[in-house]
Amino acid sequence: MLERVFHLAENKTTLRRELLAGLTTFMTMAYVVVVNPRILAEGGMPVEGVLFATCISAALATLVMGLWANYPIALAPGMSLNAYFTYSIVIGRGVPWQTALGVVFLSGLLFLLLTLTNVREHIVNGIPDCLKHGTAAGIGLFIAFVGLRNAKMIVANPATFVAFGKTNDPQVLLAAAGLILIAILMIRKVGSAILLGIVAIALAGIPLGLAHWPGQFFSWPHPSGTFLKLDLRSATRLGLGELIFVFFFVDLFDNVGTLVGVCEQGGFLRDGKLPRASRALLADAFGTIVGALTGTSTVTSYIESAAGVAAGARTGLGNLVIAGLFFVAMFCAPLVAAIPTYATAPALILVGALMCGSIAKVRWDDFSEAFPAFLTLVATPLTFSIATGLSLGLLSFTCLKIGAGKYRDISPLIWVLSAIFLLRFAFLGSE
Fold this sequence. Notes:
The chain is mainly alpha-helical and 431 residues long. Helix content is 66%, strand content 3%.
């Protein structure tokens, strides 16, 4: 049955590899179970309700991705979008969180409509190859930077923006040890290298007082605080139309960037196109709608899925593990919270290094292809946004092709996207 559904032999993978890769992906993104409720709680939302919504929306969307699209990409409420939800809409504009959930629901319906009409699939497949390679490498730098920050190897500095962390910090030393350990295991082609490294470094922190066994392993979920609390009537007011567009826009291109980057790394693209793209895009539309109904912000594809791909995931089978663990996490929030960030940081750094290999596929002898890829590569980590990196790269692609007189390289879709990006920077600014 598994072979018939997931085509393991065709994708040159095994049951054990897929299950371990799924566990690896979950461990690198388990923080969302704790972090997302904390962020949304600052806007007045009940923590218990958001915890339930986070887990149920992530589990169901990840199942749709695995069973329907057969891709090893996990989904959960997006970190940048939950911050926009709380700080810009609820706190900044004084919009009640119930109304904001209604806005998220309407944006999810818009995702669903554009997915069913194949508009979003055309966007994914219409992105030039140079930007696909640049996006994959840019995401690699992005998640490597996140890993370095989580490991406290890179810290904020008022003079230089960033600086190297303290080498006498035990967390830095443990993360560095984990980095070396996982790298050696990967060189020796140990299939579960990333997972073994995360577990080993987490356990090593217990006697040092940097990690701890949770006081309790189980807690009962309480969804009633946010379940079906969205206010659709208020969300349909004309003044909130801009907010719906922002949610739609940011998630659309964050999700596209993540899909392209992870699928490029896993070798899923065929002639620059993503097979079953509409099925993959349907997962985040479904997850966003479920999330709004249960009580959380927009659901999107998670770049941490690259850790699972690096561990050998090639089908959606591992998503069953991820979805199951999200279901369990509803009852085991204290256990999930016990996973320290310094233990997962080395995995992100090394996965980022693997993803940067795609930049070698860029045609560096053609500057109209090379510079857009380069701009996407550097803008993604420096702006801390996949959507911004992709939009700047695409705009530069259009401008350089016009300047070089290569109008045939600009498809009608690229013209439309360029116009949308210009409007975004003109009227909405950076998310």
